[in-house]
Amino acid sequence: MSEFSNRLRVSFLIVALVAIALVSMVSDRRALLRGGRELSWWGSVLLDLAAPVQRLAAVPAGFLRDAWDRYVALVGVREQNEAMREKLDRLADENLQLREALVASGRLERIAEMRDEFEIPMLPAELVGLDASPWFRSVLIDRGRVHGVRSGMPVISEQGVVGVVTASSRNAAKTMLLLDRQSAIDGVIQRSRARGIVRGRGTEELEFEFVAGGRDVRVGDVVITSGLGGVYPKGLRVGGVTAVSEPDVRLLRTATLDPGVDFGRLEQVFVMLRRGPTMELLYAAEDAIPPDRPDS
Amino acid sequence: MKRVLGLLALGALAPILQGVAASVLSVRWCPDLGLLLVVAIALCWRNAAGGVALAAVLGYATDLLSGSLFGQHALLRVFAFGAARFGSRHLNLRGALPRAIFVALLTVANALLLGVTSNFFAAGTGAGLVPTGDLLPHALMNALFAPLAVHGTERVVALLGDDDSSRRLLLIETGR
Question: What pTM did the predictor assign?
Answer without folding.
Answer: 0.75
